[in-house]
Backbone:
């Protein structure tokens, strides 16, 4: 009985730690949340039945210049998606 409890505990612990090690990057908040006044720079875009934040082509008048520069400097997966679809 004691061996079974130890085995179950070991399997449970392994499952928990393996999941967090693999998915730890997914748990990090988006970089744009660190940018001051980011909400003044981004727009809402309807996608199916929900809304996402997106990057407009032009800087909104209420968006601080420093925030706009920081948002445009984000790269790869940190970049906020564009509001307008670009022609391919």
Residues:
């Amino acid at each position: 009985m004691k061996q079974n409890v130890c085995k179950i505990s070991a399997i449970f612990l392994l499952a928990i730690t393996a999941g967090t090690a693999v998915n730890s990057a997914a748990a990090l908040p988006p970089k744009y949340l660190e940018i001051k006044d980011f909400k003044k720079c981004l727009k809402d875009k309807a996608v199916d039945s929900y809304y996402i934040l997106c990057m407009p082509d032009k800087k909104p008048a209420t968006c601080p210049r420093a925030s706009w520069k920081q948002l445009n400097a984000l790269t790869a997966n940190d970049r906020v998606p564009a509001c307008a679809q670009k022609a391919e």
Remarks:
- Confidence is low (pLDDT under 50) at residues 5-14.
- The chain is about 35% helix and 10% strand.
- The radius of gyration is 21 Å.
